[in-house]
Design a protein that fits this description.
The chain is of the alpha+beta class. It has one domain: Aspartate Aminotransferase, domain 1. The chain has three helices and eight strands, in the order ββαββββαββα. The strands form two sheets. Strands 3-4-5-6-8-7 form a six-stranded antiparallel beta sheet. 31% of the residues are buried.
């Protein structure tokens, strides 16, 4: 399957930088995109087999190439979110990534479920200084 590599949104149009194989769930990416709506400072970038939605240069949430999403959260809330939801701490090269959670697709079935995670990711990304 060939898909678009989106590096930014321009007005109602999409700025496309190239093409490549799509490993993430297109429908999930569309749902995230819809939830972000007119959120200021959002760009989309393919990376690590997924599609990252960034806010002012910081990843807020990704449609993961491993399925489901990876979301940036306040590191101080990670443990409580893991304890109270189906989320788990994200790992990179076998190491836990504090402030990053993975949520599997079955836990994102409704817009309300996905929307809460997207809101958490956007809220955290907005606390960080803008890049570039």
């Amino acid at each position: 399957m060939v898909g678009r590599t989106i590096v930014g949104l321009v007005g109602d149009g999409v700025l496309v930088a190239g093409c490549g194989a799509v490993a993430y769930d297109d429908d999930l990416a569309d749902r995230i995109r819809e939830l972000l709506g007119l959120e200021a400072g959002v760009t989309e970038t393919r990376m690590f087999g997924g599609l990252a939605f960034t806010i002012n240069g910081h990843i807020a949430v990704t449609a993961s190439g491993q399925g489901g999403i990876m979301v940036r959260v306040d590191p101080e809330r990670s443990d409580s979110l893991v304890a109270s939801t189906g989320a788990r701490v994200a790992e990179m090269r076998g190491r836990p990534m504090r402030g990053w959670l993975r949520v599997d697709a079955p836990d994102l079935g409704t817009d309300a479920q996905l929307g809460e995670w997207v809101r958490l990711g956007v809220t955290r990304a907005r606390t960080l200084p803008a890049k570039g």
